[in-house]
User: Fold this.
Amino acid sequence: MNWDSLDWSSLDRLRARFLAGNVATEPYWKTANDLAAYDLTYGERIGWKWDALLGELRRRGWPEAPARPWRVLDWGCGSGIAGRRMIAHLGVEHVAQLELWDHSPQAMDFARSRAQRAFPGLRVTIADPSPTPDLVVVSHVVNELSADDQARLETLLARAPRVVWVEPGTHAVSRTVQAWRDRLVAGGARVIAPCTHHAACGLLGVERERDWCHHFAAPPPGVHADRNWVRFAQRAGVDLRSLPYACLVLDRSPRSPDVPGQARIIGRPEVFKPYARVLSCEASGAATLTLPRRSLAPLVKQLERARGSLVYRWTRTEGAVIAGELDPALAAPGLDSPEGTGDA
Assistant:
């Protein structure tokens, strides 16, 4: 499948299905062309979200090289885009096998074929996820799951040593992931991302009902000038500039302590002429912070160009922020200091 042979009618049908947002009662893949068209377009956009999260994990140094190759399970694999991105992140030499599970046998066959093409020699299996794998990969499934499927997935995640999960960055889906996060942390999991702490999610607190934990991925350079992507965006009604996503990365290793004083900016900073405003989440809770340009000009300038994982250490006096230090290890390249350069 390529742009010249793309089945637009298949994409139109899939788009109508996605917009409906209903629980999937049966596989919506009708043909192999459905999966190929999806993988080239919608799936690739999901891959850009995975690229953003995996880039952060790489800067965090997670995971350390495993002592033995892992079994990786791509649960609800669809076309397999998430599993392939994860294998590339880990390095195929650190993967014993990629296991695929989906309600659709056709999707599992497609995902296996694409994984074997991308990683010749990799063992790829189709199996019911009853044995516990070393790592569970989950992507864009929450709003399609029945109550039974949600229970199955939560049971799997509750016993998995490691979880990497990406979902759309909508209000409803993100808050669902936040609630699962708190339950899994209560069961002993440790948060690698996006949180800087393992306390209860501050965005689920009283008077925070309108807030949700979401972040933004950047598309690859040149996408906005690519006529194929522009045509797809117009037909599908998507914004190529905006890739909001929710995520959760868990590890049951004890080597993931809190980092005292660190806070993560949720969503995008709002920058106005006299000040910037951010939603900041840390162990003590979530708070909306106002940063005056007059006294914090370099910091506000930095936030105007904000991209990547914005993890800060705030200095406060009487509750007001008087300084903010960006964690350079997590910032996207070019934002390692208030004087750094970076794309908007």
About this structure: Residues 262-326 form one domain. The longest strand covers residues 262-271.
